């Protein structure tokens, strides 16, 4: 590790990151999930560790190696993710990059659902907890709370309303409608939306987005400027 304090602006800070999709069981062999690769969240965790932070990375099911210096907790469902986040508190900053499944099956069948010869089964869904919104009103709310928003339309308007609805400090928005989209690609073009303004970053590799974001987090947490 780099020993120069100027290069470790998050030294002494605990940064919590959620990443990847969640997986919501339907029966022992089937689940609901989404296309999140976890790459952006892992890149942020890596950048925060490189900046000297203690990092807890709560990861849904992804095929990625654990970044150097990062403490990783693997989870499956949104409820598991919420419990792992709760146990990881307190944190100085939390960056909620996970694409949490919005819904889960209302009942998980104990045996594999069979086709029989009847009609397809109806899937009854119920809403998952909103981990970001829950954390925003938690007694141990991190001093800096950052959400992500993957949008396919009205990126800025949706991000601004999410910022207010979820009481986050920043929402990092990206447009996932483009081909070679942000969900599983290696590049990302994001807009950082805060109460006091909007900053648009050029399209760049997810690792670089991670470093840019971590530099802003360090500044917000009061790290001395380099
Ligand atoms: N989030 C969360 N828990 C959920 C859903 C979302 O913590 N159950 C977090 C995500 O990690 C992200 C932010 O909330 O940081 C925004 O997620 P997004 O899916 O864009 O927002 P939703 O409120 O679920 O709205 P949408 O209908 O657009 O999916
Ligand atoms: Ca959602």
UniProtKB/TrEMBL annotation:
Q: State the residue spans of region: Phosphopantothenate--cysteine ligase.
A: 15-226
The record places domain DNA/pantothenate metabolism flavoprotein C-terminal at: 10-219
Q: Which domain of life is it from?
A: Bacteria
Q: Where does CTP bind?
A: 102, 112, 129-132, 148, 162, 166
The Swiss-Prot or TrEMBL record describes its family as follows: In the N-terminal section; belongs to the HFCD (homo-oligomeric flavin containing Cys decarboxylase) superfamily. In the C-terminal section; belongs to the PPC synthetase family.
Annotated function:
Catalyzes two sequential steps in the biosynthesis of coenzyme A. In the first step cysteine is conjugated to 4'-phosphopantothenate to form 4-phosphopantothenoylcysteine. In the second step the latter compound is decarboxylated to form 4'-phosphopantotheine.
Instruction: Indicate what this protein is called per its UniProt record.
Output: Coenzyme A biosynthesis bifunctional protein CoaBC
Q: Which gene encodes it?
A: coaBC
Q: Which residues of the full protein are shown?
A: 372 to 597 of 600
